[in-house]
Predict the 3D structure of the following.
Amino acid sequence: MKGFAGIPEGKVRFTPLPDLFFSQLMPRIDNLPELKVTLHLFWLLQGKKGHLRYASLQELREDPLLLAGLSVKDPEGKVAGRRPEDLLDEGLERAVARGTLLRVGDSQESWYFVNDPPSRQAVEEIERGELRLEGIPSRPGEGVEVERPNIFTLYEQNIGLLQPLIAEELREAEKTYPPAWIEKAFKIAVERNARNWRYIQAILQRWAREGKDDGAPKRGSKGDRYRYFKGKYADYLEE
């Protein structure tokens, strides 16, 4: 085991972490690569300049400090077990699935943001083609895919421990409504301090009836609105 000499005297830089990291996020992380990758991203992005901070997959794969931290070595100092690059991919996948990180990209390249309000807005604008950041294509048509946490992750992040009785309703909602609607409904519930599924469900049902500021008819017969919704989002509805 290589020792640590302790924090030296004098001026030392610090990396701030939100209290939520220790009270909500860290107790849920049960995978060492995920924890190491998450902490490294907080540190790395904190050191960057600008309002929006993000890192590319290529940048992370070429980061010697990150790869060294993911390496497992035998007593002779040789790398043992899985490659650090594979552990990096695992850590990133888990962090995105948990909702700690936001990922924008395609099969060739990806970019990662910490999941905070400015980054969430930026990702939405990138998806709509309204924002261009260095190195990132600005439109989905250019090969950009925005990966969102699934409805179960959103529930546990914003409401609490998932109960078996509610799981079936969440599955049904995920089949019925567009992913962007679900994520937006959760966001509205959090902003209004109404963290319960019934409130979120009511928002989604109202958008299905009346439209959600996306060209759907706001007036007219209920049948007209339903036919619009079913036609526009047929891929999300069960046959």
Notes: The mean pLDDT is 79. Residues 19-147 form one domain. Strands lie at 55-56, 101-105, 110-114, 145-147.
